[in-house]
Amino acid sequence: MLMYCIMTRLIKVDAVNPDMALIRIAADVILKGGLVAFPTETVYGLGASTYNDDAIRRIYAVKNRPMDNPSIVHISSFNQLYEVAEDIPSELEERLKVAWPGPLTVILRKSSRISEVASCGLSTVAVRMPAHPVALALIRESTPISAPSANISGKPSPTRAEHVIKDLWGKIDLIIDGGETFFGVESTIIDYTKKPPVLYRPGPFTVEELRRIFGEIKVPEQALGLGQFKEALAPGMKYRHYAPDKPLIVTECSSLDGLVKLTLDLASDEVKRGKRVVVLCSSETCSTYVKAGFKVIEAGSRGNLYTVAKNLFHSLRLIDSMDVDLAVAEGYPEVGIGLAIMNRLRKASGYSMVKCTT
Ligand code: AMP
Ligand code: MG
């Protein structure tokens, strides 16, 4: 197979007050059909103009993303919502004014402006207004931007420009380095064409917040990442995701003592089998594994699960860079953003979960 390498430019901007001259350079790349990786408050996106089919096809080629898995359309205003979607229920705009800009993606009927390529042949479109000054400015200066996460398909999503550089340098036109992303896990997705709306992917916008704004929300087991299921409700649910190259096992237990014991036992069993193990733990528990002689990656604090979410994908990428054969990761309570953390961890492990017996 012939491999093409193109020149990738890297520009660094302040996340809160980006230099508009630099943003306009990136916007020009988008308008000319190029690919730009940019920070959002969730993860880095790999963007192309929603209205340029060739550019969108290139995204799929460089990411090695299946052509039946549509990307989210990122917008910067409510006018653009009406440009890309139609049959929008009258109550929705008011509700979205509470949630947007923010880490919530809504699936709606697509408008005729969204091509078959941009929608992967579906009659619906996933839309989001990101709460990141760089992303918003880039869209404002160009056009609605279709963007999946800026990683090679199946790998952990990028939360730092260095992750994008590792996966996509020489394959895309421009990378905007706006520092570490804020939440570190991808947006919450709900399907608003269903009644009640259905949660497809848990994210930083929690189920508790969704229910406050939208009322009843259906949470199918597919959204929890509990394992293989008969039917994928949305295209993205079919694919393996977020996975490090090395095996990962997730431990789950409702009591913290039980969780630590289970994790220690499992990790020790692997050592007896001659494996070199790293434990993904929390600031509250890591010292126990260190005392037992294990290498550790500290993901964040159980007292603030947002810190765990923020470091999660970086931690998963670290596993592959370490001199170990496999990783054992502690699970987290499925409340608030913990639901998104567990969804990503379970998928990253290829559903290799071990539960405690108590
Ligand atoms: P990513 O771009 O990698 O953050 O993933 C976007 C997710 O949104 C994928 O899981 C897609 O399958 C999902 N998605 C995008 N558009 C639609 C749609 N029209 N209907 C259902 N799911 C969608
Ligand atoms: Mg992705």
UniProtKB/TrEMBL annotation:
User: Where does the signal peptide begin and end?
Assistant: none
Q: Does the keyword Heme apply?
A: no
Q: Which reaction does it catalyse?
A: L-threonine + hydrogencarbonate + ATP = L-threonylcarbamoyladenylate + diphosphate + H2O
Question: What GO terms describe the biological role, i.e. biological process, of this protein?
Answer: regulation of translational fidelity; tRNA processing
One GO molecular function term of this record is: ATP binding
Domain YrdC-like, chain residue ranges per copy? 20-205
Name the predominant localization.
cytoplasm
Question: Which is a Gene Ontology cellular component entry for this protein?
Answer: cytoplasm
PROSITE patterns in alphabetical order: YRDC (PS51163)
Q: Where does ATP bind?
A: 65, 69, 124, 149, 157, 201, 242
Q: Which PANTHER family match?
A: SUA5, THREONYLCARBAMOYL-AMP SYNTHASE
What family is reported? Answer: Belongs to the SUA5 family.
Protein name, as recorded:
Threonylcarbamoyl-AMP synthase
